[in-house]
Amino acid sequence: MAACGSASTESTSGGSTSSSASSQSRSGSSSGEGSVTADKVTAASDSTTSTEGTVVTNAAVSSGGAIDTTDLFTDRDLTQTADLSEAKTCTVSDGQEIEITEAGVYVITGSASNATITVNVADDEKVQLVLDGVNITNDSKPAIFVKNADKVFVTTASGTENDLSVTGTFTKIDDTNTDAVIFSKDDLVVNGLGTLNISSTDNGISCKDDLKITGGTINLAVSDAALEANDSIAIADGTITVSSSNDALHAENDDDNSKGYIYICGGTLELTSADDGLHATTVVQIDGGSMNITAGEGVEGTLIQINGGSVNIAASDDGINAASKSSAYSPKVEVNGGEITIVMGQGDTDGVDSNGDIIINGGTVSVTGQSTFDYDGTGTINGGTVISNGEEVTTLPNQVMGGGMGGGMGGGRGGWH
Hints:
Elements: E1 2-3, H1 7-10, H2 19-22, E2 47-49, E3 55-57, H3 75-78, E4 88-91, E5 97-100, E6 104-109, E7 111-113, E8 116-120, E9 126-131, E10 135-138, E11 144-148, E12 151-156, E13 161-166, E14 180-184, E15 187-192, E16 195-200, E17 203-207, E18 210-213, E19 217-222, E20 227-229, E21 232-235, E22 239-244, E23 249-251, E24 261-273, E25 276-280, E26 283-295, E27 297-301, E28 303-306, E29 310-315, E30 318-322, E31 332-335, E32 339-344, E33 350-354, E34 357-360, E35 364-368, E36 371-375, E37 379-381, E38 385-388, E39 391-393
Parallel strand pairs: 1-5, 4-6, 5-8, 6-9, 7-10, 8-11, 9-12, 10-13, 11-14, 12-15, 13-16, 14-17, 15-18, 16-19, 17-20, 18-21, 19-22, 20-23, 21-24, 22-24, 23-25, 24-26, 25-27, 26-28, 26-29, 27-30, 28-31, 29-32, 30-33, 31-34, 32-35, 33-36, 34-37, 35-38
Antiparallel strand pairs: 2-3, 38-39
């Protein structure tokens, strides 16, 4: 297993870094995040550019929602360029296994087949991989495997196209059953100003801890879940396009059903999936962003809270489904803001389905379908605009058709593979 080259021979200051990566900031500085109030989301500008060229995406977070996300994104999470002043360059080649064993920034270049970049550093160390026009096609192993780290950043260099794919059946690495093109056992952040294309016979990006996406263009065509994590998926920005034979986004911890949430406060998501668009064991909280979801079920979780953003769903099962998946929360759908449009397919389908309550305090909710709302608890309209099959209503309709318990405890994908 080869290690990445030493700084003395492959550092970016020595001129080995390609032009697209070297145009990034060498200062490492960043501006602040979006402003936060206790009860609402305050959106900041989409991005700011410092005099050194560092681009920072501002996350519009809320401390008044179901999840307190005030400190969820660090400045480095949101910074879309890397500090290359002491970076090392690695060029992939066929059949090569590159092992990164020291904290730092590494620029990855080249085209190869059956090459894997493995990150194996101390528990308190961070690594940033800057993808600079990389093309890796593997038969059976991840293109990027995070074996151990505090956190790893996968950053696409400005203007670059990066293609990562696995075409066959994944095999075990040591004691780990890998199942994704990018597979991380620790915290993972995906960002940048370039494009990342992922094709997989299984999952796209899998993280056994917390997964964050804060920028870049990410296209995933996969046979299982596109983005999955044990503890959480958080999206602040970026353009994400998914074609999945299972869930588009899936957050589930088999060992602890108090974990596994999805948080979205920005970005543009185009999700096409055979099963769920967004699937979380605990909470799905949407504070912003724009998403179009075409799926079996659009959004599934125990507590679903929408505070802002634009959500368009075309579903063949339930549009939004709050089911009993976590012992830490009671099933509920709560809408405080945003623009939500749901169009349901024919049959025993529900636009908004809750095993508990449905509470609408604001925003606009428009549902078209045979059963627009279905709840086992109470349905309340305290504010906002609710449209059921083209007519504005002031009392929430309820049509129980036997689908209320769908996707109960242990539902969805049936756990990790």
